[in-house]
Amino acid sequence: MKKCTIFFFVTLIVILSSCATITINKGKSSKLNTNKTYLFGRFTLIKGFNKIILSVKSTTLSENPTTFELVKSMSADKLVCGINFDKSNEIRLYELEPGKYTINEWIAALALNEIAGRGYITDKRLSVMKLEPGKAYYIGDWEGKHSIDQIQNHWEITKISDNYDNSVKDLISKYSLFYSIEKINLLNNVK
């Protein structure tokens, strides 16, 4: 049991530190890295204070895997990054290596980064994503909440909205380099 607890803490620390929003120099001489792929959206914690972390996992392993690709989640997929929900409701952008990814679960964590549970995402639009270099993919505007009753904590993803047009405007406003890059709405890309 102690080994399992240590594994959860190490996994959570990697999740929390592996996928921060990217910082792009907004100067005129800046260039976009077209060898990378990008995810964008909003991830808002509408109620509560404990953490909800959206799990983005690789379904392929590159020839030169990163440390984060080698960390296994409980479902044995390769964890690439964890997207933290917060109260800002701002557009956020994440840089990844091109490849195949899935978003099929979220992790609930207490304030001291102790994993308290998991939930599964049944939205098939995000179950298999082939992300190509030089493109930005919209994965939705997410809302989650945390509550406490007299006995226990409760977490849930309450909504995944398709607010593509406004999100693209906010993305370009915040990151002007993304004006000319192809943007794809994965929530409207059902085959």
Describe the protein.
This protein is α+β, with helices and mostly antiparallel strands and 191 residues long. 17% of the residues lie in helices and 41% in strands. The protein has helices at residues 2-18, 67-70, 164-174, and strands spanning 37-47, 51-58, 78-84, 92-96, 99-109, 115-120, 129-131, 135-148, 153-161, 182-185. Strands 1, 4, 8, 9 and 10 form a 5-stranded mixed sheet that branches. Strand 8 and strand 9 form a beta hairpin. The longest helix has 17 residues, at 2-18. The termini are far apart. Mean pLDDT is 75; it is low at 2-29 and 62-78.
Look at the structure and give the mean pLDDT: 75
Radius of gyration: 17 Å
| SS field, number of helical segments | 3
From the N-terminal CA to the C-terminal CA, the straight-line distance is 43 Å
DSSP strand (E) fraction?
35-45%
Give the class from helix and strand content and strand pairing. alpha+beta
Shape: globular
Give the helix proportion (percent range).
10-25%
Structure summary, number of beta strands:
10
- Biggest β-sheet: count, sense, barrel? 5 strands, mixed
Give the uncertain stretches in residue-range form: 2-29, 62-78
